[in-house]
Amino acid sequence: MSGAGRHRPVSVPITLSESEGVRCLHFGTPWVQGAMLVGHPQVLVLEYIQRMMAWLLFLHPPAEILQLGLGAGSLTRLAHRRLRRSRVTVIEASRDVIDVCHACFALPPEDERLRLRCDDAARFVARRDVCGRFGVIQVDLYDAEARGPTCDSLAFYEDCRRALADPGVCVVNLFGRHASYRRNLARLASAFEGRILALPAGAAGNIVVLAFKGPQLAVPWTVLRERAEVLGAHFGWPTALWVNAIRAARPGARCVV
Questions:
Q1: Domain boundaries in the chain?
Q2: Is residue 116 a contact partner of residue 88, using CB atoms and an 8 Å limit?
Q3: Which of 74, 88, 172, 241 is most buried by its number of CB atoms within 10 A?
Q4: Over the stretch 147-176, which tens digit does the pLDDT of each residue have?
């Protein structure tokens, strides 16, 4: 089991910036760790954060969602406000980040649908009692330099797969311009038996990878386009572009994952 021993909360140098109504979280560097539109906290500002919701093209909101890495709380705020039938568990190593998100990033208090834990992500997914529990796991674990993920071992990805329900989707934010990208992609492919789908890199270089567990999916492109249209109208995301990019990389009558 990874990360044995008692967890000690991580201390990080937190700084904030704000411009044109957008508040950003930094870990003592210029790199943006998360952002919030101050007047509309449920809006997903960053392109890659929007793409981390691409699992909705393939899966209805599940009973349980696991968020590994809180950032500025964007995905947590969205799920708590808009995915009303889902319970969300957030694992964040830094108590400072949790406190700042409550104070400055409209993070809601814990209730029957939201649980916040100051814990180590790798240790948490390795626990036996989370096996098969979560329909979706969203992984966004970066250090102050925001270049390579802090949890990226094969064992970690295998533990994420075990923690997924059947069916389930693990969503991972990777940085395509970093040397860790190909290593992480290979480990995800190994842990998920090749059933991965990488969305093309956004303007900032982030590449969102979806990894699937459960029966093989063969979804006609017409169905994916219809789902994208509904999601785009509901959330305001450029979902049609996601489907077009996925199809360009996967020829055929259906999207098979």
A1: 15-215, 217-257
A2: no
A3: 74
A4: 667 788 999 999 999 999 999 999 999 987
